[in-house]
Amino acid sequence: MIAVASIPAAHPYVAAVIATGDDILLLDDPRPLEATTPGQWWPPRLLEPDYLRAHIDDIDVVHLHFGFDAATPDRLADVVSVLRESSTPLVLTVHDLHNPHFAELDMHRSQLDVLVPAAAAVITLTDRAAREIERLWGRSAMVIPHPHVAPLDVIAARDTTAHERAVVAVHAKSLRANLDPEAVMATVVAAASARDAVVRLDIDDDVFDHTSHWYAPERGEQLLAFRDHPDVDVRVHRRFSDAELWQYLSEIDVSVLPYRFGTHSGWMEACRDLGVVPVVPDIGHFADQFPCPTFVFGPGLFDPASLDAAVGEALRTEPTGPDFADYRRHQQSAVAAEHAALYRALSAPVASGRADGAVLV
């Protein structure tokens, strides 16, 4: 049995890519000392060097996905030292080359400067990201695509009936650092109106909650002003549950993602699952996940004409067909098999490595 300590374990992406079975055991997330919510995995205790050292004998492979935002490069170097001392292989999936929660890039790159060279295996989601990893760190990364986000039964049961008027959506979420819906909304509204479509704008209510980390009432008020447009439906609500998200995606046709920076997007994959066409910026590696309309958008950069054209292209694009659930099922099986094969390959040399002094990480 190969004991995999995924950081985190309780995450939908991890559940999709790690299929536990006869020889793969996914360890539960250690509960943080100051956890306040059920199932809370952050901050991950496995990134505390002393805690990791005390439990390393129970672990065969460590697989790091998310959760190292607050870990300094020095702390990550200490974690790497613990893994090196015990010859425990580190697998790193590079989801983000620019963390979408922080405009400043240096800290995230400094963290990756420690992790990427130390990993026994590096995974990423797209070919373009793999090429960037090769350029930055001289490491060859396995490319394993992002699996489905919506449950397979939801994908199979989705309603493909066309809406009376096409709906072009922008979801402002909680206005995290890389989101700039204010910049694109006027163009989205004009592009939709010119094509007899309507616009839906959603905002998480914590933007208006003064006790919330995401409190940004001035930005929120700019978006609420679009309520005055007859073809714009503005909705403020709590963050969607999974069921509410699937319902939301069933009610729209196009989703414009106003990301000023970033790398990959699970939101795009959820759109694809439910037959929504995403419109994405031409930065990062969003457009390499799968073909979709793009527009010119980035730090200090926006071309409204390109967004207008992209919205028009999206409204003409056929969404994924009714057999897409079968495709996602086979893809997820292949993705899980690749991860399992990697864990087996890395854990087999660990025993011999511990015997002959070889170091994997």
Structure characterization notes:
- The protein has 361 residues and is of the alpha/beta class.
- The chain has two domains: 2-147 and 331-356, Rossmann fold (3-Layer(aba) Sandwich), CATH 3.40.50; 161-316, Glycogen Phosphorylase B (Rossmann fold, 3-Layer(aba) Sandwich), CATH 3.40.50.2000.
- It has helices at residues 12-17, 49-55, 73-86, 106-118, 127-137, 152-157, 181-193, 217-224, 242-250, 266-273, 304-316, 324-356; strands at residues 2-7, 24-26, 61-64, 90-94, 121-124, 142-143, 167-171, 198-204, 232-237, 254-256, 277-281, 294-295, 297-298, 301-302.
- A six-stranded parallel beta sheet has the order 2-1-3-4-5-6, sandwiched between helices. Strands 9-8-7-10-11-12 form a six-stranded parallel beta sheet, with helices on both faces. It has a two-stranded antiparallel sheet with strand order 13-14.
- α3 (73-86) runs parallel beside α4 (106-118).
- The longest helix has 33 residues, at 324-356.
- 41% of the residues are buried.
Q: Give the topology string: H per helix, E per strand.
A: EHEHEHEHEHEHEHEHEHEHEEEEHH
Q: For the terminal residues, how far apart are their CA atoms? A: 21 Å
Count of runs of 4 or more consecutive helical residues: 12
Q: Going across the major beta sheet, what is the strand order?
A: 2-1-3-4-5-6
In round numbers, the mean pLDDT is 95
* Overall geometric form: globular
Helix content: 25-40%
CATH fold group of the largest domain: Rossmann fold
Q: Structural class of the secondary elements?
A: alpha/beta
Organism: Rhodococcoides corynebacterioides
Protein name: Glycosyltransferase subfamily 4-like N-terminal domain-containing protein
